[in-house]
């Protein structure tokens, strides 16, 4: 779930109201979830947040920094890896990111919305790659006891391929499969990618 944007220490708002910076970040999440990074301007973000562009510059410095903070707010490392989870728990949490809904409000936005919209943009792609490495691949590797995150990156490539194919192309035959079955197949694929023996053609995990 996205991180709560309200700050308990804010002093420039009434209780329960978002600050200008919080509104900017929430508005940016929705815009980046609906449009490619290259098509989203700081003016668009400022207008959606109800602030002027100069304030956006002062608050974040650049569109790239807004995009980076949006990704971190949507799936912070401490949520995905909370409680020192085992590998199966980590896979389960990562699978929660895969099934996207039309983002009508900020609570609907997931980091993979931003991936599907902006992975072809070079500036955004670098930020997404860093996010995948730091917030997903490294904790996933640790959960399985792997020193090398190579398997985790392979598993995440399966995840991103599934999400992109499902969200962008929307093949009817795939969407006709019950979501619970899709999730189980995805979970099996990710688990098998992470377990020793998969590279030898011997799959080490099956769902019950």
From TrEMBL:
InterPro entries assigned to the protein according to its UniProt record, in alphabetical order: Homeodomain-like_sf (IPR009057), HTH_TetR (IPR001647)
Pfam families in the cross-refs: TetR_N
Residue ranges occupied by any HTH tetR-type domain in the UniProt entry: 18-78
MF term (GO), any: DNA binding
DNA-binding region coordinates: 41-60
Keyword DNA-binding: yes
Keywords for the protein's UniProt record, in alphabetical order: DNA-binding
Protein name per its UniProtKB record: TetR/AcrR family transcriptional regulator
Species annotation: Gemmobacter lutimaris
Lineage, opening ranks: Bacteria, Pseudomonadati, Pseudomonadota, Alphaproteobacteria, Rhodobacterales
